[in-house]
Amino acid sequence: MSLTKEALELIQETTIAAAGRDLPALGPVVVVPQNFNVVDLERYQEGRNRFRGTYSTHSLADFGAYVVERSSPNARGFIDQDAMSCIVLFNIGTPDEPGHADDRAVLRLKASAAFAAVQAVCGQSLAQKAMSDWIEDWNKHLTASDENAVNMSIAKAIAAVRTITVKASSESDHAVGETRASRSTMDAIEASSKETLPAWLDFKVFPFEGLGEQVIRLRVSIITGGSQPVLKLRWIGEDAQREAIAQEFKDVLDSKAGTAVKLSLGNFDPK
């Protein structure tokens, strides 16, 4: 009786599988038939082989409470200050006894509506109506002052922005000599308002849940190059203030979860 090619290959694979031949390697390696599959029977069990999963939240308080509740001796946390986020790996293990690093908690702070609004408007070119509408929408967070640092009401600031007018004037100089004549023209453009224009806006805001209040100082600028005046807001000391917010984030995290898990600045990819 002759055997088919498929039958011979099956006999060969079965023999190799039964032998379970070990190969020299840094870790356990075994020769197995190509068409054999490894089946994980965990889903048929009453419970899992180990606890694993990812808890995600925007709440700093809830994140801290969860980390304290699930704390383990070898848990590690990694703080990304640029992204205002933190990840804690409860079963990361140690270099000698590494874990699967698939039991984790992830915190991603979400900017408050007010903080998102002030970030979005800074540096944007806004028409008079758009600027006055923005000030009106966020008036509860704002205080205004003029160029001399004198406080003014938000109502007056809105009225001043709405009544800006642009005036242009020209001045010409003529010079005549024996052999030549010259002429120069200088144009002056001035923006003014019936009300005193605001020079500064102070925006009070809690940037993220769980962090303290910040006062963002905005410089009001008027651009008169076009047919209509354009207004811009510039965040004074933006980089330094963002660094301060990020440092506060780390300090608050350390106070809420630092006793339960070792925290480090940076990112970790468990691969």
Give structural notes.
InterPro entries: DUF2303 (IPR019276). It holds the Pfam family DUF2303. It comes from Pseudomonas shirazensis. This is DUF2303 family protein. This protein has a domain at 113-172 and 187-238. The strands form 3 sheets. Strands 1-4-3-2-12 form a 5-stranded mixed sheet, with helices on one face. The chain has helices at residues 5-19, 60-69, 113-121, 128-137, 154-162, 238-257, and strands at residues 53-57, 76-80, 85-89, 103-108, 142-145, 151-152, 164-176, 181-193, 200-205, 214-223, 230-235, 262-265. With 271 residues, it is an alpha+beta fold. A hairpin with an 8-residue loop joins strand 9 and strand 10. The two termini are 52 Å apart. It contains 6 helices and 12 strands. The model is unreliable at 168-192 (pLDDT under 50). The protein is elongated. The longest helix has 20 residues, at 238-257.
Architecture blueprint of SSEs:
Elements: H1 5-19, E1 53-57, H2 60-69, E2 76-80, E3 85-89, E4 103-108, H3 113-121, H4 128-137, E5 142-145, E6 151-152, H5 154-162, E7 164-176, E8 181-193, E9 200-205, E10 214-223, E11 230-235, H6 238-257, E12 262-265
Helix pairs in contact: 4-5
InterPro entries: DUF2303 (IPR019276)
Pfam family, one: DUF2303
Protein name: DUF2303 family protein
